[in-house]
Amino acid sequence: MTIRSRKRPMTITEKILARHAGLRDVWPGELINAKVDIALGNDITAPIAIERFREVGAKKVFNRNRVVLVADHFTPNKDIKSATQCKIVREFAREQKITHYFEGGNVGVEHALLPEKGIVVPGDVVIGADSHTCTYGALGAFATGVGSTDLAAAMITGEAWFKVPESVKFVYHGRLNRWVSGKDLILYTIGDIGVDGALYKAMEFTGEVIESLSMDSRLAMCNMAIEAGAKSGIVAPDGVTRSYVEKRAERKPRYFASDHGAQYESVREYDCTKIEPQVALPHLPENTKNVTDVGRIDIDQVVIGSCTNGRIEDMETAARVLKGHKVARNVRLIVIPATPAIYQESLRRGYFDTFLQAGAVISPPTCGPCLGGHMGILGPGERAVATTNRNFVGRMGDTTSEVYLTNPAVAAASAVKGRIAHPDEVSR
Amino acid sequence: MKLKGKVWKFGADIDTDRIIPARYLNTSDPKELAKHCMEDEDPGFSRKVRAGDIIVADKNFGCGSSREHAPIAIKAAGISCIVAKSFARIFYRNAFNMGLPILECSEAADDARTGDILEVDMSTGEIYNVTRKKRYEARPVPPFMQELVSAGGLMKWIKKRGFV
Ligand code: SF4
Question: How far apart are the first and last CA of chain B?
Answer without folding.
Answer: 28
